[in-house]
């Protein structure tokens, strides 16, 4: 085991008596894999409590499932201060309730931490709260039934995106959060500088402003990893990232955050918008199937009132050209102004109009889309771009073929931009056709959960005037 | 299919003739799953080129594997400008080379984009470059053989961390990048403000500084998601995140970046440091096994010269108390000053001294560790903390039990901190014992790949005076 070394000195430090497995069972494991008669220990937080003469019935949860575990304990064994919200450890025997569900006949119970509402705990037992109220207590929000379901769904969804794309041969590339490029920004960006003024002074070179001192230039938070992904796609063919993105917009709509997550993918050698449509449709359908499979009970838990309709999962999505979409809006008498493009209201109308199936809108006017999008063959007023609109949310994915002709691309930029020289280089040396898309991760979660406010599908929402914790 | 709607209008927009599968085969698939005689198309970038009288031998790669695909094409079919670095499409028949490897006998070949070194391409054929030189061309770096192996390894490693922790019942929680808390910072933090001065003016309330306008308070880039993870662990028991972390430090060492990735995990109801040691050991061993399984050829590719020794994967890691570590350093005559704690040099010495097996150092002096760590039972000068030191890199994981006694925790903070009231609340209401750790993702990659500079294991490194692209 130890070659070429003084073994004697160290064997005493090797700990041989560690338990190799943490023996603590989660409530999910207790409900799934224990047998009647098993003696077990369970730990969790009290979600509800009913006192009867002889016994107390306690429902506990530990976040491993949205199901609760019922503990039955003799009144005499119950410690003081046993209230909803308290954390306990209990040992007992697995038995079946009259309804056939596993429960624990407790032989002992102890409190880790009590939870006294009158001390300032914001959630009283048996009360329902609005999501606005719950959002004011972000640090306690994971303790609420619905939000813990959302967190498990979000966790599974991100894992499924990674696994699905990996299975399709994509390489995950962490695009930078800090960047010296401000390409899509149009002013809606955050700037980053060290907080320490002494540090800035010590690093500042002659002629530099304080903002430029640390990185030798102004530095921003990324608004998109696309351009960086493109550089990787020019070597690895299929690449993606799922990471945070930032926008300094003073928008408080139910669909906007200052910090949110985006799944971005870039694919080399794909030359047709139809192929990109298939990529996006396959992604959304496959990941949603994986999610319904892994988290059905959490999704049902969020949909007790409004059952989501997932029949779109097995259908081809609708594809409209931008012109076709325009014609529908005009024909149906919707307020539509070409200069403003398609409003949120009109997005939602189009989806409803097409039978609540996700709708691709393709071939967009060039003048409202970014410089890197590729023109439609035979129509230089349009670009080969797509938006995917989904029920209740509207746009959830945006993508396009990228202009891979060096001269055309450079011509699309009004001023000679030194900042983007590296991006033009990708076309100059070993250039290939590429395309890609960005999927708003939170918007996707709104779509599959039926939750209406984006602040309620991210653990720690940041929006104008709000960055608590 | 379309319930309750005007079906006729839309059936023409449903595209029925999309190919349901993108037919393009990756080079990995060609090498793995085609048969001799198959007619196929391959696309990729030329990595090398040998011209003979009758034929030209071309090696291409597309990033799907570190293996190259050999194309044999008659000299007459070869287009002009066929050079290393150019991107091509080729069609032909799969055959076996004299050595028994699959290759393509090409019937046609076309260039997507040429790659002329004299136009400014920084990599000439058949030349070796230092990693410092390659790093000056970040946008082309994924095209180099070794770095593309690294990117595939990095991608797999992140996926394995997600899957391993998910399999162990952990819930992924995206901790915020933007935060109003500056807890561990000690000045080494970045501040964030909108770049748009008009926006700041329009949002600024009376008495606020410009930095406070957007979020109603000064806002920073996160230096750790631990405290936020703790709030989720107090409901979901086992939580983690793998995300970017920022430090505004003027350090250019081979082990520091301004933006890097950290895997952080928090676990409720674990009360012994031994259990945390087991968690970390299991994580590192299991993920590394998964990685060797998925990316053996890439790891070998990076280790042609220096073969990594992975025998530690099946061994228990060494555990030293801080005191034992001190005694070894003193006995071995190393320069050691208790005030400076254990230097990088001494970390590396300890690991070598213990047979190049990863070494846990546990039970650290309280005065050099953060306020939230839990004291050792019976010794209030020590805390139940661990560092994991690994060969060639030193510290790769740091963790501890967290102080869960409300009064003790509050007592550890010199000034009454309103900012952390939410954190104290976790102990006041339904508090439980928790512990957790942070693993430096890039340092882990250095450890398993044998690469020596942290700038060479992240796609877009940011460090003082460097934030290009």
TrEMBL record, chains A, B:
EC main group: ligase
UniProt record, GO biological process: asparaginyl-tRNA aminoacylation
Family: Belongs to the class-II aminoacyl-tRNA synthetase family.
Name by which UniProt lists this protein: asparagine--tRNA ligase
One GO location term (cellular component): mitochondrion
Aminoacyl-transfer RNA synthetases class-II family profile domain residues: 151-459
Entry's EC annotation: 6.1.1.22
PROSITE patterns reported for this sequence: AA_TRNA_LIGASE_II (PS50862)
GO MF: asparagine-tRNA ligase activity; ATP binding; nucleic acid binding
NCBIfam families (UniProt xref): asnS, PRK03932.1
Top-level taxon of origin: Eukaryota
Gene3D superfamilies membership: Bira Bifunctional Protein, Domain 2, Nucleic acid-binding proteins
UniProtKB keywords: Aminoacyl-tRNA synthetase, ATP-binding, Ligase, Nucleotide-binding, Protein biosynthesis
Organism (species): Phyllotreta striolata
